[in-house]
Design the sequence.
């Protein structure tokens, strides 16, 4: 079913209010999730609501949390999110960390013990809007690992995403946002909900054999996701775990005995003022020059347009804003089920949804 982004946002906002989030937090989280859907990242969109609700219900995720803001040490800032909603806690942490830029022209953030931060590219875009270059590395703790290191048949870390962007006129251009696994776990969940298979190379079964069936991984965490690019993606995933978990956070996934069941993130971020190197206008000019230089290259056979990192999201955003956001029936059923556990009326919620033309 295709729904208007406005109605999905109002629907999501209502569900989050039911979970106990106040008006400010509900707005931040619902805007974040709908933007993920609009940009084509349904794995990090409103389909996350059932997990968030279950974590709130079980006492592992806390609405309206107040993070612990540690005193900066030079340009380094540590923020403990105390398992608050990551979408909100991350923005508070970035704003706090960026206060060091005035004196140091750089901010280095260690965000730890956060609820799910969702689409990491959102934070690259947030920093770019302020004129800053940024790099973000996120590990995942709180549940069993999902991704098999190159050469292994059992998982040893999670999808461990990376995002980075250059600022040009207040926009992230280009903007890289990727998991170090071949595909994010949420895309496996979406495929399972839709009753679809996935391409070979995404998943290994428990024997380490490639499989196209997403259901065992989506429903039972059986098997493993593969690292992208074999040893290269595996190596990146390993270092994301170390930067976000061992350096910036308090736990890597190896410390599972100490963490309750759920999804929690640590994030290591570097935010840079380009004026420390040259005028920001000159940095933006060189960035645009190289961007256009790459875009002008002839396309390979079968390729209609050479897309830069971030452009697929821009194209999808325009299309879905005009024509609606698709949400499969199983995902919607799961959202209604968790909402009813918080006393929300199914018919009242359904009335907020408007089908796109």
Sequence:
């Amino acid at each position: 079913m295709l729904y208007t982004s406005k109605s999905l946002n109002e629907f999501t906002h209502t569900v989050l209010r039911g979970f106990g989030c106040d008006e400010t937090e509900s707005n931040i989280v619902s805007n974040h999730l709908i933007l993920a859907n609009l940009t084509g990242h349904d794995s990090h969109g409103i389909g996350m609501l059932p997990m968030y609700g279950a974590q709130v219900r079980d006492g592992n995720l806390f609405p309206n949390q107040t993070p612990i803001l540690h005193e900066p040490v030079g340009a380094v800032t540590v923020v403990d999110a105390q398992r608050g909603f990551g979408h909100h806690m991350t923005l508070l942490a970035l704003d706090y960390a960026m206060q060091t830029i005035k004196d140091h022209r750089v901010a280095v953030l260690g965000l730890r013990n956060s609820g799910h931060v969702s689409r990491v590219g959102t934070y690259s875009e947030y920093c770019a809007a302020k004129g800053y270059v940024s790099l973000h590395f996120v590990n995942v703790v709180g549940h069993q690992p999902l991704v098999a290191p190159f050469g292994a048949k059992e998982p040893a870390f999670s999808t461990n995403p990376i995002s980075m962007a250059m600022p040009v006129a207040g926009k992230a251009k280009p903007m890289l946002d990727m998991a170090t696994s071949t595909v994010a776990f949420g895309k496996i969940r979406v495929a399972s909900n839709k009753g679809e298979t996935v391409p070979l190379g995404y998943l290994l079964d428990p024997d380490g054999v490639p499989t196209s069936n997403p259901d065992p991984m989506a429903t039972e965490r059986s098997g493993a996701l593969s690292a992208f690019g074999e040893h290269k993606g595996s190596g990146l995933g390993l270092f994301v775990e170390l930067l976000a978990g061992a350096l910036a956070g308090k736990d890597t996934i190896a410390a599972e005995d100490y963490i309750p069941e759920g999804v929690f993130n640590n994030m290591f971020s570097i935010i840079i003022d380009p004026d420390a190197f040259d005028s920001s206008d000159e940095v933006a000019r060189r960035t645009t020059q190289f961007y256009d230089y790459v875009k002008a290259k002839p396309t390979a056979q079968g390729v209609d347009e050479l897309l830069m990192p971030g452009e697929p999201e821009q194209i999808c955003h325009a299309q879905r804003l005009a024509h609606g956001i698709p949400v499969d029936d199983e995902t919607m059923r799961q959202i209604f089920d968790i909402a009813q556990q918080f006393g929300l009326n199914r018919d009242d919620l359904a009335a907020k949804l408007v089908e796109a033309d």
Observations:
- DSSP finds 13 helices and 13 strands in the chain.
- The mean pLDDT is 95.
- The domain at 65-181+227-295 is CATH 3.30.1370.60 (Ribosomal Protein S8; Chain: A, domain 1).
